[in-house]
Amino acid sequence: MWTGSNPVVSDLCSAVVSAAVIFAFLQLWKETAKHGLDQKLNRKLVHISIGLVFMLCWPIFSSGHRGALFAAFTPGVNIIRMLLIGSGMWKDEATVKSMSRFGDRRELLRGPLYYALTITGACAIYWRTSPVAIAAICNLCAGDGVADIVGRRFGRQKIPYNKNKSIAGSVAMALAGFLASVGFMCYFASFGYVEKSWEMLLGFLVVSLASAFVESLPISTELDDNLTVTLTSILLGHLVF
Question: Residue 161: how many CB atoms within 10 A of its CB?
């Protein structure tokens, strides 16, 4: 993207820009948490926005493995942050408040850590030419995030096999994950990274429906939605794409 620059310097600049964008969003949600926005809503807004905004930055990196590794640097640093804050080695109450359900720093060693691992792996292993990366991040961020927000507000009718989950939340998850996936398919296709097709669209629908179903199972609550949704998206993605 940075015309005339050394390729390595160009990717380094891209990494700095993407890190600055993510840092700005994290600071925004830390401030909203400090100023009284509902903690559950704030946490899900972080969940939805960070991965999707970061994926919007992928085109500024170079093609090939080097660009993927530079892109993976930002979420990779966040893995270290989650480990340090979650273990208590680094005190950051604002981050704990914006990313945890109950204000316990140890929660960052589960969902938020799995979240950072997913995005890092999507960059380093799959990158922007892979629909698997699109499906994994979109179902994790848009799907799972929207499911919680909708489920808390409209989820009066519970799923028979899991009273902690609602039909409205599961439908919202499948729909949000699918629409976000299609949106990023079109976005990356505009740069020539993927080729739009009905087959890919159908694959996104299958993965989003399966991810919503797995997220609704009791085992997802026990293990963590961020883990089960990611594994479902990746494993099924390899079969349908």
Answer: 9
Burial class (CB in 10 A: 0-12, 13-18, 19+), 170: buried
H-run or E-run covering 164: strand 162-166
Tokens of 62: 């170079």
**Per-residue pLDDT, 233:** 96
Could you tell me which of 182, 166, 236, 193 has the C-alpha nearest to residue 61? 193
For residue range 195-215, what is the model confidence (pLDDT) as tens digits? 999 999 999 999 999 999 999
Both structure tokens of 209: 């429906």
Q: What is the DSSP letter of 160?
A: T
Instruction: List, for residues 3-22, the tens digit of each pLDDT value.
Output: 556 888 889 999 999 999 98
For the residues of 5-43, what is the DSSP string, one character each? S-HHHHHHHHHHHHHHHHHHHHHHHHHHHHTT--HHHHH
Q: Which residues contact 131 (CB under 8 A, 6 or more apart)?
A: 181, 185, 194, 200, 203, 204, 237, 241
Domain ranges of the chain: 1-128, 129-240
| Pick from 33-37, 46-50, 176-180: least confident | 33-37
Q: Which residues are CB-contacts of 160 (< 8 A; sequence separation ≥ 6)?
A: none
